[in-house]
Design a protein that fits this description.
TTC38; 24 helices; single chain; TPR repeat; mainly alpha; repeat; Tetratricopeptide repeat protein 38
């Protein structure tokens, strides 16, 4: 019996397959672009490796695309064919894939935690638990999970640096910004290709309103994310946000055109980077040209997807941004239907915060700012359940705030800004300061001051 890079027994029999399996695991931790190549080689050499098949299925589910569910189902069939020859730890991965395919990613998390109770050194289970919790908006759970297994990751553990990167992100998402910054820097020192840890520190700078320091942090560290899959676009997105906060619009557009949308994919994560950045620009009254067009065309083809409410809401940004009323209405109706007809984990999120958010974004696109604010502010308290990070969800907070300003709801908007500041440890970025100035001006003229509508 051979052991993997983390010292765990595996049911693999070929040394070359073990090398590829180790590369797959390390690649997942590093968000490496080469990971699928190693997975293909592994399953070509040992197609009966049930753990590898189960992970293939979960990797496809993490992509959040309805057309990939059938591939995950095929992977489950292959994994179950090897169930009897799999080790007890490996079987739990198969069970996790099966329960996830039934509509319960929360059940897959429970299986990962079951693994970690007896195999806390299993860095792949740690990362999968972290990743699934991320798409479900469970920041507190991410932090608890990481902190439970930390004692098992000695400095010589191959996954130690990546564990620290995950810890840094969980700390940041739960408001421990100083600790997050320290952990993220330690992560990158131990694992120089840990893009997740590097980006956790970028999040800290975003949440503490220090764009200049964020740009300094990213300066000279491109090697930490150049090797990545499409996650590299997300790191460029963070850099663009920093330039935007500093009013450096030419740099924002340069990053958008040459890095963030360098490849015109319809991966929901890439769409979310692009749509949220364009919307931020548009809310600031900046003309984004024809950049909405390709995003809205891609998003119009995803209206029936329904894998993740986070993805759906960003498709809506693109559709509303380019005034595609028919596709917008189709997507909003589908979200409301899923909320009523799907009893699974994502159906619950379609119901809350999905329905109110979707109706609010549709109203905002139609110029109905009173209706938009009523819907969006209703979803404000549960927005985290949409998944993603504080920085990613902030575009929806900005739309809510701007809808309130345009509707003349100055007191309510001030409360939202105060809540936003509290979540950021008392810090405010230039977006918030500009909106507070609008509130002051509105009250000073004794009228409902509004931000310019596009």
């Amino acid at each position: 019996m051979m052991q993997d890079i983390f010292g765990q027994d595996t049911s693999l029999t070929e040394q070359s397959a073990l090398r590829d399996w180790n590369a797959v695991q390390m690649g997942v931790l590093a968000h490496a672009a080469a990971t699928p190549t190693h997975l293909m080689a592994l399953l070509s050499a040992e197609p009966g490796f049930a753990l590898g098949q189960a992970c293939k299925g979960m990797f496809y589910l993490l992509l959040g695309r309805s057309e990939l569910i059938s591939i995950a189902q095929e992977a489950l069939t292959a994994a179950k064919a090897g169930y009897d020859s799999a080790l007890p730890r490996e079987r739990l991965y198969i069970e996790a894939l099966e329960i996830w395919l039934s509509g319960r990613p929360s059940g897959a998390i429970a299986k990962m935690e079951h693994i970690l109770r007896s195999h806390s050194e299993d860095a792949l289970a740690m990362k999968l638990s972290h990743s699934i919790r991320f798409i479900l908006g469970d920041a507190a759970g991410m932090r608890r999970s990481i902190e439970r297994v930390m004692p098992s990751y000695a400095p010589e553990h191959a996954g130690r640096g990546y564990l620290l990167g995950c810890h840094a992100f969980a700390l940041e998402e739960t408001g421990s910004y100083e600790k997050a910054g320290i952990a993220g820097r330690q992560a990158l020192w131990m694992a120089p290709d840990d893009a997740w840890g590097l980006h956790a520190v970028a999040h800290v700078h975003d949440m503490t309103g220090n764009a200049s320091a964020g740009l300094e942090w990213l300066q000279g560290r491109k090697a930490a994310w150049a090797h990545c899959n499409n996650f590299r676009y997300h790191v460029w997105w963070h850099k663009a946000l920093m330039h935007l906060d500093l009013g450096q619009i030419d740099q924002v557009f340069d990053l958008y055109d040459h890095e963030i949308r360098k490849d015109k994919t319809d991966d929901y994560r890439d769409i979310s980077n692009a749509t949220s950045l364009l919307m931020r620009l548009q809310l600031d009254g900046i003309n984004v040209g024809n950049r909405w067009e390709e995003l809205s065309e891609l998003s119009a083809n995803r209206t029936e997807d329904g894998c993740l409410i986070f993805a759906d809401l960003h498709y809506l940004l693109a559709l509303a941004g380019h005034d595609q009323q028919s596709a917008t209405n189709r997507l909003v109706k589908r979200i409301h239907a899923d909320a009523q007809n799907r009893p699974d984990d994502m159906g619950q999120r379609m119901a809350d915060p999905g329905c109110a958010m979707a109706s609010g974004l549709e109203a905002f696109g139609d110029g109905d700012y009173i209706g938009a604010f009523n819907h969006l502010s209703h979803a404000h308290g549960s927005l985290q359940l949409a998944g993603g990070s504080h920085a990613q969800r902030d575009v929806f907070e900005r739309i809510t705030i701007d809808a309130g300003l345009r509707a003349g709801r100055l007191d309510a908007v001030e409360t939202l800004l105060d809540d936003r500041r509290a979540k950021r440890g008392g810090a405010e970025d230039n977006y918030a300061l500009a909106r507070r100035n609008l509130i002051t001006a509105g009250r000073g003229t004794d009228s409902a001051h509004s931000v310019p509508a596009e």
